[in-house]
Amino acid sequence: MTPEQLAAAKAVMVHGPLLIFIVVLAILFIIFATAKLKIHPFLALLLAAYGVGFLSKMPVEFIGPMIAQGFGNLKLWQRGPIFQLQ
């Protein structure tokens, strides 16, 4: 993604209090989906991430790469001993 493409995407995206409302709505969805609907947490997180992308008017071609970049930066391999204790 070039800086020009990112700047054009930011120009049409939702900002401010509406974006905060969308994120709060996504958090509530994650809690509801995992607690009541018994959906796997990873799937709930993935659906919420796509929902935030669509509702914030992010261009569709950027939603997938942004989610992949976000999940890719978790660095779960550094937390291996924590997961092995459970």
UniProtKB/TrEMBL annotation:
UniProt xrefs under InterPro entries: Glcn_transporter
GO cellular component assignments: membrane
Pfam family, one: GntP_permease
Record key words, sorted: Membrane, Transmembrane, Transmembrane helix
GO molecular function, one term: gluconate transmembrane transporter activity
Signal peptide: none
Transmembrane spans: 12-33, 39-56
Protein name from the UniProt record: GntP family permease
Organism: Caldanaerovirga acetigignens
